[in-house]
Amino acid sequence: RGMLPAALAMALLLITVMPVATRAGSAPIAARHKSDAAAQKPLRFSITNLGALAGGFDAEAYSVNARGDVAGRSSVAVRGVPTTQAFLYHAGKLTALGMPKGSQASFGYGVNSQGEVAAAGEFDGAESPYIAGPGSRNSWLRLPVPPGTKGFSAALSINQSGEVVGLVQGMGANLWERRAGQYTRVRLTSSPFGEADSIDNAGDIVGFISPQSYPNRPALLWPRGAKILALSTFGGQGARAVAVISGSSTSITVTGSAQTRKGAQLPAVWRISRHGGHWIAGKPKALPLPNRFNA
Questions:
Q1: In Å, how far from its chain's centre is CA 23?
Q2: Which pTM value belongs to this model?
Q3: Using one digit for the tens of pLDDT, what is the confidence trace for 145-164?
């Protein structure tokens, strides 16, 4: 699965503890004008081992929401048969979400603030998009796809309104909109390639539509109700956008990675702002890497 993180021996939740900012006016003016390099404090991290489901030996964590719930997948044994099941980590507890009826495996890819999980069920090697939960085992809602669709289709992200994005085999990036409890599928482009990887609570979407393999494809942003924007790189050919958040009606932030002229991938943040009714994407800002991971 090209959009997923590398496998982990056990699912891990990384929590960044940022330095607490001083309130404006409480420090001397000279101190507030120090260079960023001098003023920046080192980041501190804590790592929580989420473990694996009963009978499982490995797991992957794919998504985390604002309250710390985590969605992912874990190996598990069902009636003595090894398989994979979606899980939800909430309030310190890892819960198996089960599998859609008739499936052989399940995967949890995204989680919203209500604990609903954007997911997929596997049927004879092919995957179909579902919503699991919230928070209950074996509560699975299948999202509509065209009859006869085979191959890999999945729901990858869900926002607090229940809007879902992902991909449908042969139809690329898709959006599922919920109205009166019913879902309608919307193709985001006419391209048969690509996928929509993340949707924020304002309905902004990031993903890609190119047939090129990562990292040579461009990263795209669909601001809600506006034209698609291509996100720039550090001089290389491609980029990857993995998360999006709307700061206000005039600002959007996207995170991911972008390629340099030499082909290295650097973690990146894009700031997109609205001016005169049009969205304008700024150049990416490279995030600092620990010394031993410098590209």
A1: 33
A2: 0.84
A3: 999 998 999 999 999 999 99
**Cα of 53 vs its chain's centroid, Å:** 22
Residue 24's alpha-carbon distances to 17, 30, 247, in angstroms, are: 21, 13, 21
For the chain, count helices (H), then strands (E). 2, 23
> In the beta sheet, which residues pair with residue 141?
131
Residue 292 three-state SS: helix
Q: Are 110 and 71 in contact (CB under 8 A)?
A: yes
Query: Measured between alpha carbons, how far is 151 from 171 in angstroms, rounded to an integer?
Result: 11
Give the dihedral of Cα atoms 164, 248, 239, 126; nearest 10 deg.
0
Distance CA(111)–CA(31), nearest Å, equals 41
* CB contact at 8 A, 121 and 92: no
Give the total residue count for the chain.
Answer: 295
Q: How far apart are CA 239 and CA 216, in angstroms?
A: 7
The predicted-structure confidence for 36-49, as pLDDT tens digits, reads as follows 444 556 767 788 99
